[in-house]
Structure formats: C-alpha cells, structure tokens
Design a protein that fits this description.
- By secondary structure, the chain is α+β, with helices and mostly antiparallel strands.
- Helix content is about 30%, strand content about 25%.
- Helix 4 packs antiparallel against helix 5.
- The chain starts with about 35 loop residues before the first helix and ends in a 7-residue tail after the last strand.
C-alpha cells in the first residue's frame, strides 16, 4: 500500500524530532490597533505624589473616559492602598491598572506571610518596575508613595518599568499643567495638611485644562500608621 506523502504518521506526531528537545509554541500577539485603543477604558488622569515631613500625600482626579473623548465614569478612585503604609495610583488603561494593583497586593501579602515583616517601599518600587516591564499591564504610568523605616518615598513608574524617586512627581494627561502649580507651591518639610492643599491645587489646575481629568479629587495621606483616603467632589473642601 502506498504511504501518504506527509512525513507525519496517522498519530499526527512528528517522530523525526527528538523527544528530549523542548516543544516551542507561539506567543499571542499583543498588538492593538488604533481603533481598538480608542475603545479602551482609560483614566486619562492627573495624579500627584508629594513627600512631606510627616509622610506622603497622593492626589488624583476622579474621571475615566473612552479614548479621552467620552466620560465613562465620574467617580473613579484612582489611588488604592497596596501595603500597610503605601498606596499606588491608577494611570492609563483601567483594566491594566487594576490588574497591576491586584498583583502587587498579592506579592506584598506573600512577602509578609513568608518573612513575617512588611516589604520595604524601595523593594516594592523595584518589584512594581519589574512587573511593569515584564507583565501584561497595558499602558500604565502610576505613582507609588509609602513610608517605612528608611523614610518617606515617592516613585513614578513608567510603562517600560523605569522607577524614579523624587520629592514630588506628577503623571497622567494633565501633568504639564499640574507640574507648574507644584513648582510654584511646593516647599520642603510641608505637613500632610499643607501638601494636601498643594496637591489639590495641582489637580484643580489640570482639571481646568485637561479633558481627561475632572469631577473632583481623591486625597491619600500616608504615614507610618497607615493610609487614609478621602474623596472630594468640591475642591473648596480642601483648598
């Protein structure tokens, strides 16, 4: 009987290959078209982190949008506690940022369970940068702020995994406007209450000009005792 032209037997397996060699597959493409990108829920956003004499203050606006053109939610909490004395902002795609926060929280809990102590903020920032560089967290640019035995820390984490520490930092679509406010009003050794006013002023300035930011401000005050997050629809409540 004539054998089929295919080199594969009826089992469908290629027995000319060594069974000891790894079998390689293909990684699905993560390419996103411009049309698909416009449909992604994004926070647009202005987020601010300030190191103070008492700890750290983080401020964010409350708006989420579709492609930066349609307001999809007016009450988004864009700063979340991820550590007993640290918080992270949501910047970029909502799904990517939420997944990023869940992953970091899991690692923080795992570290504490294994070692019986909290991970340092510097190590947490390094871990966040590694996750941003190597993980599937699409289009994120968060701020990490925290307090530990080594001091008060503010880090910006770029989408490529870069981690930069500073006394204050701004990320998001309204950063250029907010940065100008901070350059004028920031002072060394501010209290948390003073930093809240400065940060809220920066968010308010961005809201006036950036269509991706709006609808109020969330403020997170971080000390060695923990993280306190409050939302304000009216800027006059904190200015």
């Amino acid at each position: 009987m004539r054998q089929p032209d295919s080199p594969l037997p009826r089992t469908g397996q290629d027995h000319t290959l060594s069974p000891y060699e790894p079998e390689l597959g293909e990684v699905p493409s993560n390419d996103v078209s411009a049309d698909e990108l416009d449909a992604v829920n994004k926070t647009g956003t202005t987020t601010i982190g300030i190191s103070t004499a008492e700890g750290v203050v983080i401020a964010t606006d409350m708006r989420a949008s579709l492609g930066g053109r349609f307001v999809s939610n007016k009450n988004v909490q864009k700063v979340e506690q991820i550590h007993p004395s640290a918080a992270l902002t949501l910047v970029g795609s909502v799904g990517g940022a939420q997944s990023f926060i869940r992953s970091l929280r899991a690692e923080v809990d795992l570290y504490e369970a294994r070692r019986g102590e909290d991970i340092s903020i510097n190590a947490l920032a390094t871990l966040a940068g590694n996750f941003a560089r190597g993980g599937p967290f699409f289009a994120i640019n968060p701020i990490l702020g925290g307090v530990d035995d080594e001091g008060h820390h503010v880090y910006s984490i770029d989408p490529a995994g870069g981690v930069m520490a500073d006394d204050y930092t701004v990320t998001g679509s309204g950063l250029m406007v907010a940065h100008g406010t901070l350059e004028q009003q920031y002072e060394d050794d501010m209290t948390n209450e003073e930093a809240k006013q400065v940060a809220a002023s920066g968010i308010k300035a961005a809201v006036e000009r950036d269509t991706g930011s709006g609808n109020g401000v969330y403020l997170a005050a971080i000390t060695e005792e923990g993280v306190d997050i409050t939302g304000h629809k009216d800027f006059e409540e904190v200015l």
